[in-house]
Each structure stands twice: as structure tokens, then as C-alpha cells.
Amino acid sequence: MNKIKCALIGSGNIGTDLLYKVLRSEVLEPVWMVGIDADSEGLARARDLGIKTTHEGVDGVLPHLAADGVQIAFDATSAYVHKENSDKMNAHGVFMVDLTPAAIGPLCVPPVNLDSLAETMNVNMISCAGQATIPIVYGVSRVQGVDYAEIIASLASKSIGAGTRANLDEFTYTTSNAVCQIGGAKKGKALCIINPAEPAMIMRNTIYCMTEHEPDQEKITESLMDMIEKVQRYVPGYRLVNGPVFEGNKVAVFMEVAGLGDYLPTYAGNLDIMTAAACRTAEMYAEKILRGEMQLVAEAS
Amino acid sequence: MTNSDLAGRKVLVHDMCLRDGMHAKKEQITTEQMRAFAQAMENAGVPMIQVTHGAGLGGNSLQHGFALHSNEEYWDAVAPVLNNTVMSVLLIPGLGTMNELRLAYDHGARSVHVATHSTEADTSPQHIACGRELGMDTSGFLMMAHLNTPSGLATEAKKMESYGAQTVYVTDSAGYMLPEDVTQYVTALRNELDDNTEIGFHGHNNLGMGIANSIAAVRAGASRIDCSVAGLGAGAGNTPLEAFVAVCDRMGIETGCDMFALMDMAEDLVFPMMDHIVRIDRSSLTLGYAGVYSTFLLHANRLGEKYGIPPRDILIELGRKKMIGGQEDMIEDTALSMLKERDSAA
User: Fold this and answer.
1) Which residues contact B272 (CB under 8 A, 6 or more apart)?
2) What residues contact B95, with CB distance under 8 A and at least 6 apart?
3) Which end of chain B has the least Cβ crowding within 10 Å, N or C?
């Protein structure tokens, strides 16, 4: 089967983990990895795997996009530079999957809205916490109205790279917004805690939903189990630890996300859920391109 | 007056009863109480007071509790009665944001503690820079300091200084430190930081060490001490301000505060409004002993009762799992997991 060629921008934790996911894909083929540091470990790994690399940022790959047939790019850099990266890629007719919290394109949580995304040249993956918690919020809101949803993500310090650390405000805004827009809550809030414990703690997520009316415990539980199973299809380490706990109109769900250990060890489930979701999303677009249902057009920036 | 080696030293005391004290009141302090407290502290010459939700900017949540009023309403109640006293706020990146800091400035806040866990200073550069751009007195606040080594903490403090922090705090959130620990941490910071960067100490009284630790900090070079009138704060409370000022008076350390006015405030305003007497009891003592975040106290008491598990056992388990400030959700999760384990063992 033909594969759609991809460029990965960002050679940090997320970009490097993503590389392993894309390598396993049946419809995607990584051909370029872009960094800004010649000594980056991620770039060295990519070279060892036979991927072309540049440490000159996006401008280093632009002259090669057409010749190498790149049609999809992933951006795993920073919200602050994403728009510029995306504009340059789109101008060359390359579709952009955004793993930063920049959120300039429509938001995507695969098990919730992958099939109903609008036509676009840029799709945003929200945040690791968004990918881990929005399926749960949606699992409640599709049963009955949710006035307020709050999500708390606890992440192992070793799994959090420089980009994420510099984007905590954007993380908060983008995730809160997505809890409403994609999760279906009327109001949303996102909190993030970075824990340095040794041995490193596995990513944990707590989701609280305040339902409009008394929660239908049986229906909500059934709906949540269905959503968890859907996420497990692409993130096997997604697991319910405790709950759902019902207290008045509050529904509390306590999740854990173990990763596959592709780049960082299994505690870094936050990398996996983000990169697996991005890969799944890119595959959907790749399939459309391969079937001729989607035309990529170079856009003037 | 006792002669002491610290005679003539100047210390800026920073009151926490309208921020850390919010934890002890489950965030239910009224705007009238806030205004009365602020007026009393202005009258007593307290140079700085912190006013926000217990968890700071963005704190209103199921995780940290919803306060009786928004931060804006609290600031608007307090700011008009302050003249010489500066109003400060707490900002924990990941919970609060720079937009909320700008809002705090618009409502009269002129000082900020930008707080991170003791090993995660690099989540704070934007927020510290934002404080400085606004012209605020900006401190870096390294929480749960005992979970880092003295030299490790000094490295993190140096980062905060490089982002623009004018003061860096050794924050003993668990009330775990002993005076000799405080000496080591503050000394490590003093050796690492520029001479014109101030060092602060924020203590909790869980092991009864609040005042002794604060004095040890001053002796090692700290010039800012967080206290709270009547100790109103999380766990067994903060270093009681009126008692700290009394000890400073005896030692010749200058705080500029009126000790009798603060004593009266503690007795007449603060104690009467406490829901429980903030003291060293078996739960708060466990926090200090096991090195657990002081704010976990009331959550563990409530959930212990709900699930029939001694709060002390929950707190010890949280300490073992190295849970840090902000992970209040993990208290219920831990209680549920303990319950499962107990049921499967039975």
C-alpha cells in the first residue's frame, strides 16, 4: 500500500516519541525530522533510523518538501512558533497536525470527533491532558448535560520537556476550552501538576463533572466504559483506577495512562496519548488523500 | 531586651492569614472579615499581606474548593483600607495564569509569590517576567523545599533569580524542616544567589518549629519571613505573626510591627472566626512528621470520615507516594485504593 510521506517538526520528547508511532503506521512514512539543535538526541535517533534531518528549523526542510513528496507535517515545537511553522507548511501544500497548544485549527480528540472534522489544512491535538480527559467528559455529557467539568493532570517531571514547560498558560486555556467545545461541558477548567517523584509516577488524570440533574449512574458508567475501550484501541495503557464516584451531582473518575515506552519509559503516558492521537488523526487524513477524497492545495501565506 | 547576634537586623514580615488562612477556613472568609483583618494589619504596621484563594490565582475549583467570593471581590474589599501595607497574591503556574496576574495588578496587588514545586523552577520564567513587567515586587516560591537537597534547591533558586525574581523563598509547605535543615537550605541559597537578591522563608508549624525555623532562616541570611496572625493557615498553621514579632523584639530584630496590636487582632478577630482551632493535632503532626503538603489536612480528615479510614493512614500513604501540592485529587484516589486493598485482604 502507498504511504503518505511526513515531516516531523520538533525533536524533543514529543517529536521523538511520535517518530516511533509514525514508523509503525501502515499509511504514514516519516521522511524528515526537523530540529533547531545539531546535538539533539532526537535528531541523532532519527538519523540512525534512516530519516533525513535538519537542525535549521522549518526553513531547513522547506526546499525539500516537493522533491521528497511530503504531504503531512506534525508540529511538536511550541505554541509560540506554531503559526509561523504552519503557515510555511500550508504554503507548500502540506497538511499540518499541531501537537502544541496553539490551537489555530479545529480541535481533535479521535474517539470523539475524528469522523466529523471540517475540511481544514491544520488540525490541533489540544494537549496530552485533553486527550486523556475529554473522552471521559464526553462520556458523561453524551448521557446528560454537564454544567461544569474540571480535569487535573499529574505528569512525571522527567516526561515534561522545555516546550511544555514554557506553555503552561496556553495548556490551561486550550485544554479548558476543549473540555467545553469537544467534551460538551458548559464550563471547563484544566489544572496541571508536575511531580518529580522517583521512581517516576505514571501519568494520572482526574475528571470531575457536575451534571445538570441527578446523574444516571448506570447509563453514565456504561457510557464511560465504552469511551475507555475506544481510547484503549490506540493507547493500551489507558486505565480506570477508581470510580466513577457519584456524590450529589458530582461524577469523579480517576484514570491512569501508561505509555508503550517507545522513547521515554512507560510512566510517560502523556507522550503516548498525544502522539498516538496525532498519528491516528494523520492516518485518517492520509487515507482520505490516498482515496483521492482530499486535495492538498498550496495556500499563499 | 535580650542582646542577640541578630540585633539590628531588619526583617520584612509578610502575613498569610488571608491566603494560607483561607485553607483553614475551607475558603469561606467573608469580604467583611477580610476588610477587618486588613485594616487591623495596616494599623499594626504589617508591611505586606497576601490576599487570594488559598491556592492562589485560579484556585476556585472542585480540586481546591470554591471560595465565598472571587479574588476580585476580595481585593476590592481589602485594597481601599490599605495605605502603607502592600497587597500580594500567590500564582502557581499550571493553575493560575498571567492574565489573572494582570487582573490582580488592576485590582491593586503590587507583589506576587510565583510558586513552583521545589524541583520545577523552569515552569515559572514567563510568570516571573510578567510580574516584573507589571512593576510588581516579585518572589520565586519553591514549595515542598524538603523534597530537594540544599544544593538542588539553590540551583532552582538561581534559575528563578535569572528569570527576574527579586526574592526567592525556601518554602517548608509540609512543616517538615528542623532549624538545622533551614540553616542548610538558606545558607545554600545565600551562597548561590547575588547579594542583592533577598531570601525568604515560609514555614508551617506542624512540628512546632515555625518560630525557631524562621529565626534560623534570619540567622542564615533570610530577610523576608512569611507568618500569619494567630497562625491561621494550612496544617497546624503558619508561623504565628504576633509571636514571631515578640521574639524578634526580644532579639532586637526590627520588623516595624506593633506586637500588642497583633496580639489583640489574634485574640479578638482571628480566634473567634476559626472553624477549628488551628493547632498541632494528630493529623497536622503527621503532615510534619511524614513530609506531606499541609493543605491535604482537611481533605484527608473529610475523606477519612467518608470511607472509614484513619486520616493519619491516608496522609502517611500520600507521603509514601510522594504526592505534592496541587494533587488533592489523589487523596480520594488513595483512600479508594486503600479501601480496595483492605477489602481484598479481608
Assistant:
1) none
2) A172, A191, A192, B55, B56, B57, B58, B59, B64, B326
3) C
Among B117, B119, B330, beta carbon nearest to A204: B330
CA B122, distance to chain mean position in Å, is 20
Q: Inter-chain contact A206–B117, Cβ cutoff 8 Å?
A: no
Give the residue extent of every domain in chain A. 4-124+275-290, 128-268
pLDDT per position as a tens digit, A212-236: 999 999 999 999 999 999 999 999 9
Contact A254 B329 (CB under 8 A): yes
Q: What is the DSSP letter of A263?
A: S
Distances (CA, A) of A64 to A31, A71, A92, A286, A301: 10, 12, 10, 20, 18
| Dist CA A222 CA A140 (whole Å) | 10
pLDDT tens across B235-259, in order? 999 999 999 999 999 999 999 999 9
Q: Give the residue on A whose Cα is nearest the Cα of B91.
A: A169
Dig out the grid coordinates for B168 from the structure.
Answer: 526567592
Short-list B84, B143, B144, CA closest to B114: B143
Q: Over the stretch A75-90, which tens digit does the pLDDT of each residue have?
A: 999 888 999 999 999 9
Taking domain A4-124+275-290, whether its CATH number is 3.40.50.720 is answered by: yes
Please provide residue B322's backbone torsions phi and psi, each rounded to the nearest 5 degrees. 55, 45
Cell of B151: 544544593
Rounded to whole angstroms, the Cα distance separating B168 from B189 reads 8
* Residues B88 and B169 sit within 8 Å (Cβ to Cβ): no
Q: How many Cβ atoms sit within 10 Å of the Cβ of residue B150?
A: 18
B187-209 in b/e burial notation, b at 16+ Cβ within 10 A?
bbbbebbeeebbbbbbbbbbbeb
Q: Which CATH number fits domain A128-268: 1.25.40.10, 3.40.47.10, 3.30.360.10, 3.40.50.170?
A: 3.30.360.10
Q: What is the radius of gyration, based on Cα positions, of chain A?
A: 19
Catalytic annotation, pick one of B23, B53, B107, B127: B23
Is position B113 annotated as part of the catalytic site?
no
User: Would you call B287 exposed, middle or buried from its count of C-beta atoms within 10 A (0-12, 13-18, 19+)?
Assistant: buried
Residue with cell 471560595: B67
CA distance B290 to B207: 10
CA pair distance A139, A202, nearest whole angstrom: 23
